[in-house]
Amino acid sequence: MKGIGTFSPDGKHKWMVFLLVVLVQLGVLSYIGWRWHNISVDGIPYQWRCLPRLEESSFGTDYVRVVFPEDTTAWMDESAPEEGEKIYVHISHDASGLMKVEGASAEKPGIGGDYMDAVVVSFQDGVVQFKVAFDRYRIAPELADGIYNISEKDNVVASVRMKKGQGVIEGVFVNGIPLEECGNGAAMAEARAKKEDEQKQKTASVFNKPSIVESGMVPPTEE
After folding, report:
1. Are 166 and 42 in contact (CB under 8 A)?
2. 196 and 145 in a common domain
3. Same domain membership, residue 153 and residue 92
4. Which residues on adjacent β-strands are paired with residue 87?
5. Does 16 share its domain with 99?
6. Which candidate, 93, 112, 132, 207, has a CA 20 to 30 Å from the CA of 60?
C-alpha cells in the first residue's frame, strides 16, 4: 500500500514529470540563445589564436572544439589559486588587433579593464593555466571536413565577443577564410598563396629600402 505523499511514476505523475523536464530544457535552450544573442550584439570583439578540433558530443551533434594555445599567464595576486577555482583573466588588444592576455587574478580588473571568466587548471611558479567556458563552435556536418585541410603554417583565429567575462565564438577563420569554406581546396590554396606573397613583399621592402645617403651625394675626397 502506497503511503500518503509517495511519488508514483505512473499515470498523471509520469506526464507531469515529463512536461516539467521538457519545460526546463526549453528554458535552458531559450536562455542560452538569448545569452548568445546578447553577447554577440553588445560584446567587445576580439580575435584569439586557436586550434580547431572536430569532435562529436554524446547526442551525436557535430561541433568544433576550439583549443586556445594561449592558456597560461602570470598570476597577479600574492595568494596562490587552487585547481578548479574561478578566476578572472585580464585581456586587451595588442598592436595587431589580436587578443592579448595580460594576467589573471581572483578579482575582476578595475573600471575600463576587460576580462574573461575562467577556471584554474594548474598553478606553478607564479604561472596559472586556465580554461574558458566558450570552447565550442557549432558547424554543419557537411561543412566540417575543411578542418582536415588546415596545416600548422596557417593563421587560425576565432572571432570572439566578450561581455562581463562571458564569451561566444562567432566564427573560426583560417587565413581569413571562414572554416565553413575551408573544404574548398582552391580557396585554401589561394589564401595561402596570398599570404606567402604578402610575406615576400614585406621581405623585399626591407632589402630594397634606399640608403640614407645616396652615392651621388657623397662629396669628393679632398686631395
Report:
1. no
2. yes
3. no
4. 118
5. no
6. 132
Q: Which residue has the cell 557537411?
A: 142
Q: Do 17 and 93 share a domain, yes or no? A: no
Per-residue pLDDT of the chain (223 residues; tens, 9 = 90+): 444 445 455 566 666 766 666 665 555 545 455 455 556 677 899 999 999 987 765 555 567 899 999 999 999 999 999 999 999 999 999 999 899 999 999 999 988 889 999 999 999 999 999 999 999 898 887 788 888 888 888 999 999 999 999 999 999 999 999 998 887 654 555 666 676 776 766 666 655 555 444 444 444 555 4
Number of domains in the chain: 3
Residues 179 and 141 in one domain: yes
Instruction: Report whether 162 contacts 39 (CB < 8 A).
Output: yes
Domain contains 220: no
Judge if 88 and 113 occupy the same domain. yes
Distances (CA, A) of 65 to 44, 50, 134, 175, 204: 22, 10, 9, 19, 38
User: Which residues, in sequence order, are CB contacts of 76 under 8 Å at separation 6+?
Assistant: 90, 103, 104, 105
| CA-closest candidate to residue 134, choices 89, 200, 182, 79 | 89
Per the structure, the complete domain to which residue 20 belongs is given by: 8-42
H helices present in the chain, as ranges = 11-42, 185-207
Strands 136-138 and 99-105, bridge-based pairing: unpaired
| 51 exposure class (CB count in 10 Å sphere: 0-12, 13-18, 19+) | middle
- Give pTM, 2 decimals: 0.67
CATH of residue 191? 2.40.50
Give 76: exposed, middle or buried? Use CB within 10 Å, 0-12, 13-18, 19+: middle
